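# step 3/5: fold
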Amino acid sequence: MASESRDMNKRLTTIIERVLEQIPVDLERFRSRDPFKTLVAVILSQRTSRENVRAALREFEKRFNSVSDVASADIKSIGKAIKRAGLWRQKAPRIKMIAKQLLKMGGLERILSLPYEEARKILSSMKGIGPKTADVYLMIMRRDPVLPIDTHIFRIMRRLGIADEKDDYEALRRKLESATPPEHRMRAHLALIEFGRTICKARSPRCQSCFLADICPYARRIRCS
């Protein structure tokens, strides 16, 4: 078991290194962001494209200037602003409720002043903010050395034989973080997502031109089928 674990960690380290080498990432676009609007953007990003998130966030910013504006707004007006992002009937009431909770808690600035585990626990306790959303938010806002796992990363790691059926969010996050230096985890998160969008796609993955094909069981099966 120990040798299998070492082999797995070695393969995962190779995967992360190659992805970081091959997939460019622009970290500058995450600098100087408003805490609440960033949280809204992360919520809007669930199950939609980046283009839709940008369009919805632009409209949201036109209509609302502060957390209190959102907390006092009717759900219909919030829904109208974020409609481009999809699932607005679910997201609009959640965003309003989160805004009201934040006002009671003293704002996001107070939460962001707390240690990672405590801040993550508070954020995750809000409906519409699970562990992954909390991790993404803290990674963006404070550069916390976490490596959040989304659907793209789950798919990639299953195909590469890193994730198995027993792995949940926390188990796979621990695996990837163990093979990724803290200072590279944000870049690795973003690069893996881009890799999943452009190469290791859910449909019609580009295995023939993939730089991980030589160590990917899924690519071998595709070639042999």
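# step 4/5: annotate
The mean pLDDT is 91.
# step 5/5: archive (pending)
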